[in-house]
Amino acid sequence: MSKEEFPSEKDLPQEDQEKQAKAAEADKAGVKDDKKVKDDKEEVAKLADVELDQLKAEVAALTQKNKDLEDKYLRSQAEIQNAQRRYSKERADLVKYESQRLGKDILSSVDNLERALQVKADDEASRQLKKGIEMTLEGLVRALKDNGIEEIKADGEKFDPTLHQAVQSVPAENDDQKGHVVQVLQKGYVYKDRTLRPAMVVVAQ
Question: d(Cα 191, Cα 104) in Å, to the nearest integer?
Fold first, then answer.
């Protein structure tokens, strides 16, 4: 077939030319659509990555916040338990040592009665008065003992700073006497497992 047998584009009928133009435009549009789809997919992927990073950051922040709240809760619980233990101990001590203050107040009266008994009784009236003082003192000492308050042994005992208060020292007569109490100036008392009042003593050195 000769070259002249192939019709050129301009020789084609108008309808065929329009079809070819539309086909060409369709091809171009298809390429553009493919590119647009690809761009859209990339944009969606970028947005997804950004949202994922944001979600990860929010999860990390919430995890840390939860950890902080849990730590505060545990600390609060520990403080409450410590407070309850302190309260229970204070309450137990209050019950156990309920007579401590009363005992201290009575000791001064005991001291006064003991000093009164050191006064010499020369007549019958004085002896009767002294007898009454002795009975009063015995009653007070018995009441103290019934409530857990007892006299501290001091005279001749080895000096104990938790029980004795040295107000004076004297030279020891022998080695066995060193560090021992040789005189009691004021009686001391213990209340259960507490020293209510230390004994005021003279110690040999």
Answer: 10
Torsion (CA) 157, 159, 165, 171 in degrees, nearest 10: 100
| DSSP summary character for residue 176 | G
Say how far apart CA 78 and CA 81 lie, in whole Å: 5
The tens digit of pLDDT for each residue in 95-106 reads 777 778 888 889
pLDDT tens per residue across span 33-86: 566 666 667 777 778 788 888 888 898 899 999 989 998 989 989 999 998 888
Q: What is the pTM of this model?
A: 0.55
Sheet holding 199-204, edge to edge: 164-170, 199-204, 181-186
Angle at 163 between CA 159 and CA 169, to 5 degrees: 40
Rg of the chain, C-alpha, whole Å: 53
Question: Is the four-CA dihedral 155, 159, 162, 168 of positive or negative sign?
Answer: positive
Residue 181, classed as helix, strand or coil, is strand
Q: What is the spatial distance between Cα 195 and Cα 191, in angstroms, rounded to a whole number?
A: 6
CA angle 8, 11, 15 (to 5 degrees): 115
Q: Which residue has the tokens 């553009």?
A: 32
